[in-house]
């Protein structure tokens, strides 16, 4: 009986030491203080927003926008410029291949929802796309009025135009399809850029194009569901002892707000660990569905007071002034 009691006592001691180690090794109490403001990522620049309820992959979001509070249309140079002026550190944009081998900056699978044209972006040359009115389909009152009709002609830019217009700014480029050939095409384009410019760019998208892109540009920061899982699943297993999985190195993580507290050391120690392996963390609102962002003061109140990683927002004009305060 005495031996049994001694064994139980030792087990409790070992368990106590283990729990104490796990707590102290992942506590913000014993880590470098982070006093810099959060990094602000403006989704599609400064864009028209809409209610997220009931959205599916086929929803035409231009037909359900809120009453416009500003004159900008997503994925255009004016909207990106407005976002940077407002305080964005990074602007996210969407790309689609054109018929003549360029990349147009445009979000939807088809042109039908937002523009006065039909079909796919890939069915048109860039010159043809420039003639379209990308503000044609926007309405806030179920089609009674269309406040942006006639104002979006010529506003669909190419990726080349965007990067030339903003030579010093950082971008998150979204490959919209699951086609690995688009990853190869983008890699061939990016390989022509100086290394310094590549350091300002990150690419995310489906597993297949990101995988093919990464093969040709292994040093480029990328993000896909595959790269996210390859980092975070091992981290959940061994991160509590401070060991960083190799898959977490030199990448970008888009982490839904709902799951972030499950990560060892979140927020401060987790962010410091990711900084140590040159990885950027972007927090997405909610469960990560449909590009939900931190878009108002109430959203920001859910953040930890010492959170200084990246924040995904659809309303950089609202969020940046609050952060600056």
UniProtKB/TrEMBL annotation:
Report any Pfam family annotated for this entry.
GDPD
Q: Which InterPro entries match?
A: GP_PDE_dom, PLC-like_Pdiesterase_TIM-brl
CDD domains named among the record's database cross-references:
GDPD_GDE4_like_1
Keyword Membrane appears in the UniProt entry: no
Keywords in alphabetical order: Hydrolase
The superkingdom listed in its UniProt entry is: Bacteria
Does the keyword rRNA-binding feature in the UniProt annotation? Answer: no
Q: Which stretches make up the GP-PDE domain?
A: 38-323
Stated name of the protein? Glycerophosphodiester phosphodiesterase family protein
* Organism of this sequence: Sporosarcina soli
């Amino acid at each position: 009986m005495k031996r049994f009691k001694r064994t139980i006592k030792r087990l409790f001691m070992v368990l106590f030491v283990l729990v104490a180690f796990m707590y102290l090794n992942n506590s913000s109490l014993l880590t470098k203080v982070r006093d810099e403001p959060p990094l602000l990522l403006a989704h599609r620049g400064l864009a028209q927003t809409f209610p997220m309820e009931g959205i599916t992959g086929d929803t035409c979001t231009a037909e359900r926008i809120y009453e416009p509070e500003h004159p900008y249309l997503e994925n255009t140079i004016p909207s990106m410029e407005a976002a940077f002026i407002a305080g964005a550190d990074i602007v996210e944009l969407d790309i689609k291949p054109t018929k003549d081998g360029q990349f147009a900056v445009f979000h939807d699978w088809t042109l039908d929802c937002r523009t006065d044209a039909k079909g796919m972006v890939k069915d048109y040359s860039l010159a043809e796309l420039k003639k379209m009115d990308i503000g044609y389909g926007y309405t806030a009152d179920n089609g009674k009025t269309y406040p942006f009709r006639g104002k979006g002609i010529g506003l669909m830019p190419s990726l080349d135009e965007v990067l030339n217009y903003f030579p010093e700014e950082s971008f998150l480029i979204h490959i919209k399809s699951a086609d690995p050939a688009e990853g190869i095409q983008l890699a061939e384009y990016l390989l022509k850029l100086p290394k310094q410019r590549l350091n300002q760019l990150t690419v995310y998208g489906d597993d297949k194009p990101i995988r093919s892109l990464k093969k040709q540009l292994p040093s480029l920061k990328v993000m896909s569901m595959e790269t996210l899982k390859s980092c975070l699943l091992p981290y959940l297993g061994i991160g509590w002892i401070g060991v960083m999985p190799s898959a977490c190195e030199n990448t970008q993580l888009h982490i839904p707000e709902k799951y972030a507290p499950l990560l060892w050391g979140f927020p401060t120690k987790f962010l410091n660990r990711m900084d140590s392996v040159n990885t950027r963390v972007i927090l997405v609102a909610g469960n990560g569905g449909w590009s939900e962002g931190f878009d108002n003061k109430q959203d920001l109140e859910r953040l930890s007071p010492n959170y200084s990683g990246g924040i995904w927002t659809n309303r950089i004009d609202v969020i940046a002034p609050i952060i600056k305060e």
